[in-house]
Specification:
Layout (H helix, E strand, L loop, with lengths): L3 E5 L2 E4 L11 E10 L2 H8 L8 E2 L3 E9 L11 E4 L2 E2 L5 H4 L10 E2 L11 E5 L3 E3 L6 H5 L1 H14 L6 E5 L3 H12 L3 E5 L3 H9 L4 E3 L5 H9 L4 E7 L9 H4 E10 L10 H7 L2 E5 L6 H9 L9 E5 L4 H10 L1 H4 L2 E6 L3
Parallel strand pairs: 11-12, 11-14, 12-13, 14-15, 15-16, 17-18
Antiparallel strand pairs: 1-2, 1-4, 3-5, 3-9, 3-18, 5-6, 6-10, 7-8
The structure holds zinc ion (ZN).
Zinc ion (ZN) binds next to α2.
Length: 339
């Protein structure tokens, strides 16, 4: 039995507990697979503070084992994705009955109990049925892909426009692939040759290191106009200030994903380029869109390393993650949870 509770900074303990349905609109889910995420590591390290105690685990799928009498469209035995974010219930949008437009959604492992446990009981709207054609690894990346799609929406681009994607690790290459899916041209920038190689395998045509040649490469790739927007992945070791060198005037920069984000951008750079800077760290209400994208093979996870662990010690793995982020940010580490 498992239920990994974060009780404080780097204090993660297994205290199995039983959960049962307490309302007719709830479902009970046996968690089958959990993807270790950057957010889990940040919570574990205390870089993001949780309301302790909280069960860790943000990205998971499972099988429905029980449904309340008033659940519709969800049946016992269904494979489902567990929503990592929920409406806060307190903001203006939530209070006006528009919870889909919640401006301060709450997240698993931080504000409510996450999924690193055997069973989860939640409201039926907090799970999404998964079509058979959606593979486990893809389902576990729904939120990452949703952040990419949310980023694309924020940029308001047209087909053929060029977007610099700074950081070509898993997160960056998911963004690049989502841009390609929308017929926008990603230009990946990363100093790790393996990441640039993987970018090509993901169908990215332009992938450059951030070296002395970068400006020339960008001029050639954009017909001299520089990029129409930039997306900076918070997991990238490249400095955020690089954005000023890759975009034209009056363009938008989106900072994506949750990470340590020690990077900074000077006000004078923002002003001199008349830049709009915004951020995307959630994919609330994007799940159905992403599932539909996955059914249409919008992204390819083939080029990424995957490790599926049926025996694991979350404490040991999280310590390793915090020690060697770059390694974990480039592969899918999945806990196969068995009762
Ligand atoms: Zn809200």
């Amino acid at each position: 039995m498992e239920s990994w509770i974060l009780k404080g900074v780097k204090t993660l303990v297994n205290e199995p507990q039983s959960v049962s349905i307490s309302s007719p609109t709830q479902v009970k889910v046996k968690v089958s697979h959990l993807l270790l995420t950057e957010t889990d590591a940040l919570l574990y390290e205390g870089k993001i503070s949780a309301k302790y105690p909280k069960i860790l685990g943000r990205a998971a799928i499972g099988i429905v084992t029980e449904v309340g009498e008033k659940c519709y469209g969800i049946e016992k035995g269904m494979r489902v994705y567990l929503q990592p974010t929920r409406a806060c219930g307190e903001c203006l949008a939530c209070k006006s009955g528009k919870s889909k437009e919640c401006t301060s959604c709450i997240s698993a492992g931080k504000d409510f109990d996450g999924f690193m446990r055997d069973f989860v009981v939640c409201e039926q709207e907090d799970v999404s049925p998964l079509p058979d054609s959606v593979d486990i690894n893809y389902a576990l990346c729904i939120e990452k892909i949703g952040i990419a799609e949310n980023t694309y929406d924020k940029l308001n681009l047209s087909a053929g426009q060029r977007v610099a994607v700074i950081g070509a690790d898993l997160a960056g290459l998911l963004i690049a692939q989502v841009l390609l899916y929308h017929k926008v041209v990603p230009i990946c920038i990363d100093n790790n040759p393996a990441n640039l190689e993987r970018a090509k395998k993901c169908g990215v045509y332009y992938a450059f290191p951030a070296d002395d040649e970068l400006k020339t490469n960008l001029v050639n790739a954009t017909g001299g106009n520089m990029c129409d927007a930039a997306v900076y992945c918070a997991t990238s070791p490249l400095p955020l200030s690089i954005v000023k060198d890759v975009i034209g005037d009056c363009k938008t920069v989106v900072l994506c994903f949750n990470s340590l984000m020690n990077a900074s951008l000077s006000a004078s750079d923002i002003i001199s380029k008349n830049m709009t800077v915004t951020s995307v760290a959630y994919a609330y209400d994007y799940t159905n869109t992403v599932i539909n994208m996955l059914v249409h093979n919008a992204v390819n996870l083939q080029p990424f390393e995957k490790e599926v662990l049926s025996e694991y010690d979350p404490v040991k793995i999280l310590n390793e993650f915090c020690e060697n982020r770059a390694k974990y940010q480039n592969k899918l580490t999945v806990f196969k949870m068995i009762l």
